[in-house]
Amino acid sequence: MFAIWGLVVLAGIFVVIRFTGLIDHMLPAGDPPNFTFAPDASVPQSRNYFIVCPADRSPKTDRRMESPKFEAAVSTLTELLIETAPAHGMTLMSGIAGSKPGRLYFLARSPVFHFPDWVEVELILPETGNEVTFCLFAQSDYGSDDIQQNEKRTRAWISDVIARMGQAG
Asked: What is the DSSP string of 66-122?
């Protein structure tokens, strides 16, 4: 009987903390990663990240995919990334200290426990033509393994963007 009562009390505490927003204050997001997208870039030792990048800018890791190319203006891709992010649990963060031009920073939180993940997107202007692409680095703030949550969210988001915008080539 005491065990059941204890579980009810713990569940009640969790519900109050989770749904009043207190958990977001208990698990602060910290600073975004400011990742360097280059073939010789070092990747984290932990397995709590995912990278999307063109092959010529991608670091060597098994936690990556090649980014799609779009025949569109950079502003169009930027607007679509911002527009579709909330459907995948991400919020655009602006005014980040130390942020680099041409980068977007999104904060994602896991559905149940609201663990924060940073998603950093660097838009890549086309050297010739009008094929625009991007690099993306998604990393959990807490833990050493994200159980592929960053990869799942990123792949779903990119699929959504591709479906809405179309892919070049």
From this structure: EPP-EES-HHHHHHHHHHHGGGGTEEEE-S-TTPPTTEEEEEEE-TTT--EEEEEEE
Confidence of residue 75 (pLDDT cuts 50, 70, 90): confident
Q: Which helix (H) or strand (E) holds 133?
A: strand 131-140
Within 10 A of 26 (CB to CB), how many other CB atoms are there? 9
Phi, psi of 81 (to 5 degrees): -60, -45
Cβ proximity of 67 and 136 under 8 Å: yes
Percent of the chain scored above 90 by pLDDT? 54
